[in-house]
Amino acid sequence: MDTSQAMTNLNWFAVFAAAASGFLVGGLWYGPLFGKAWMAASGMTEEKMKASNPAKTYGLTFLLSLIAAFSLAMFVGGGDLSFGMFAGFMTGLTFVAVALGITYLFEQRSLKLWLINSGYQIVFFTVMGTILGVWH
Description:
The chain has helices spanning 3-8, 12-33, 35-42, 46-51, 54-76, 81-107, 111-134. The chain is mainly α. It has one domain (3-134). The model has no long low-confidence stretch (mean pLDDT 95).
């Protein structure tokens, strides 16, 4: 299958749903599950969060998540649930978490922060892959 055919055969609803799933996963991950630990490890404060532009932050976050979901959908292709889940998990673990790890080493960030942020990415990509695998 060539690239244009693969793009035409994408389930765009699934791509958008996969991208949006990051808000659900992130809301839980950086909220009740690891919010306080993440804030402490990253140096984030309530004041810094309030000073941000939420429309810009969430809008760009969705755009970047949409790009990631689109790319993952191209890999998952016509796969099924188990392949989508596997592809998402392996993408989160071996591409994203490893890349963050390299950056964190040079930035001398803590292992705790890497575990929190990488854990989110692994779960997020697994959820995206699952959605894309189900709705291929």
